[in-house]
Amino acid sequence: SLTSPNCGQWRDEVNSTARPFRFIHYDPIIQRKQKEFQDERHQRSKLNDDLSEIQNIMKKNINDILDRGEKLDNVQNISQDLLKQSSGFKWGARKLTLQARMQQ
C-alpha cells in the first residue's frame, strides 16, 4: 500500500526512474484510492442534501404547529364568547318567563 512503512522507498524509485510506466503495478491502488475519495465526497454531498431536506421539513412542521396553535386559540376564544352569550340568553329567557308569569 502507499501508506506502508516503505513509503519513502517508492518515492525514491519514482524520483530516480526515467520510465513512468515502470510503476504500472501501482495503478490499481491509485484508482481504488481515487474512487474511495470520490465516493466519500459524493456521500458527504448526499448527506448534506438529506440534512437540508430534513431541516426544511422540520421548519414546515414547526410552522404548521404554530398555525394550528393559533387556530386552536381562535376556536377557544369563540367558544368562550358563545358560552357568555348562552349564559346571557339563558338569563334573558328566565327574565321573560318571569315577566310572562307576572302578567297572567
Describe this structure in words.
0% of the residues are buried. It is built from two helices and no strands. The protein is mostly helical.
Oligomeric state: single chain
Number of strands: 0
Largest sheet: none
Question: Strand content of the residues, in percent?
Answer: under 5%
Determine the mean pLDDT.
82
Supply the number of helical segments.
Answer: 2
**Cα-atom radius of gyration:** 40 Å
Going by helix content, strand content and strand pairing, the class is mainly alpha
Q: Please give the alpha-carbon distance between the first and last residues.
A: 113 Å
Reconstruct the topology from this structure.
Blueprint: H1 7-16, H2 27-103
Report a brief summary of the structure.
This protein has 104 residues and is mostly helical. Helices cover 84% and strands 0% of the residues. The termini are far apart.
Supply database-style keywords.
single chain; mainly alpha; rod-shaped
